[in-house]
Amino acid sequence: MRPKATARDLPPRMLRRTKRLKSGEVWVGYYYNGRDEHGARKEIPLGTDLHEAKRRWAELECKPAPAETGLMMHVFDRYIREVVPTKAPRTQKDNNEAIHQLRKVFDTAPVDALTPQHVAQYRDKRTAKVRANREIALLSHIFNLAREWGYTARENPCRGVRKNKEQPRDYYADKSVWDAVYSQACEELQDAMDVAYLTGQRPGDVMRMMENDIRDGALEVRQGKTKKRLRILLDTDAGERTELGKVLDRIRARPRKVRSLYLVATPAGGPLNKWTLRIRFDAARTAAAKALDQAGTLEAQALAARVRQFQFRDIRPKAASETDLEHARKLLGHTHEQITETVYRRVGEVVRPTKSATTMPPTAQTKTAPIGAVLTSGGSGEIRTHEGRKPLAVFKTAAFNHSATLPIFSELRRRFPQVAEITKKSCLKTKAFCVMHRFSRPVHSTALPHLRSVDHCDAPRSIPAGIAYVTRSNNAIDSTCEVCGNMLAMPAPFSR
């Protein structure tokens, strides 16, 4: 074969073509000097990347690819060039930072030389343990694509490598922390906190909510991370506005100098972003902690320490922790309950203490067991449990609103697993509430127990509004208005 007169740094029958563009830059492309089916000379394009062009040249020549084309640096380059731009902006930033760390170790390593031992050593040497898990996960994806691109046929070295143990954030912003920061927040920050809590969405999704997202009595949300669509209702089945509906009505009715299409906006009409939101939240948190420090009491100082740990991202877990698990899963847009339970539920399950016969009389064990923690909102309340024809569970609150009834119904579902659905109904005379539930097995009545004669209740009207109860007697489910005494007993579809 005659020696090449030009491009001697290239393999045989590989050509380099250059062209100066109007911008002044020099374009460089590589071609294979081949032949068509008729034997005529034909230049086959190999691309603009030298190492990738050499790999394609090797395929056309039926030769092994040059050793320098099988280094991880070329796989990283191609991943950054072809894959990273297709991801979300925040994910692109995270991927570039992770690849920067991976290049320090694996950049000059041959693709075929990587082993699980090398990946495990990288995991152990990395000081940022959580970031090491993310970087190994990204390396695994990059290696899988390298297999698809033909760089290697070996097994993924990241497979089977243990990850560092991670501890999810477990901070819970209780009512005292929330009130302390909320009282120091400006108007637009209060709007952001209310909408974030009532919708349970991520901060970025809250900032993107617009007025035209309100359609047909619901706030339509498209989550930026998972692209999942949600419709959060603004009205109850009875036609009353939900707490979210009231907040949105307040925001939309507020006069502004400039009308904004965004629900969370400044008084001047400008939308909030993550930086302006953080400035306002940090200022409110600092002011709340400073005010508590000035009080001088130990309780105030302890609360100030908890306030300083409060972050805006903790509002989403707070929303998930203050409702039942199934509702929290749907509201947060999760497919399975595991991520909701593990990461976002930050309050413990409500349980009763152990009863000892030596410390508690037998009559007291069956008569009363107050659990005040169940009623997280709606005023003071109590729970009583009895046996026989007495109420099996009694719940009393100062008012029955949406946030007050959810923990009650959750407690009923926990105590009575056979109950598939629970709703509430009020006595028209006394304004008291009874609980109706639908059993998981088919029964003749769709909802029982039921108040028998609510229109003829002669009880006085001075009782506190809000009584919910379920009663049981042997094989019958009894419903008794605790005010007027009316009862309806029907055969139970189960035996206990």
Overall description:
With 496 residues, the protein is an alpha+beta fold. It has four domains: 14-70, no CATH class; 72-149, DNA polymerase, domain 1 (Orthogonal Bundle); 175-344, hpI Integrase, Chain A (Orthogonal Bundle), CATH 1.10.443; 363-491, no CATH class. 38% of the residues lie in helices and 16% in strands. It contains 16 helices and 13 strands. A five-stranded antiparallel β-sheet has the order 7-8-11-12-13, with no helix packed on it. Strand 7 (382-384) and strand 8 (391-396) form a beta hairpin. The longest helix is centred in the middle third of the chain and has 22 residues, at 274-295. The chain is elongated. The chain starts with 13 loop residues before the first strand and ends in a 5-residue tail after the last strand.
The sequence of SSEs as H and E is: EEEHHHHHHHHEEEHHHHHHHEEHEEEEE
CATH class descriptor of the largest domain: Mainly Alpha
> CATH-wise, what's the superfamily of the largest domain?
Intergrase catalytic core
* Uncertain parts: 357-404, 418-484, 486-496
Number of strands: 13
Q: Please outline the major beta sheet.
A: 5 strands, antiparallel
Q: What percentage of amino acids are in beta strands?
A: 15-25%
Structural class: alpha+beta
CATH topology of the largest domain: hpI Integrase, Chain A
| Rg over CA atoms | 33 Å
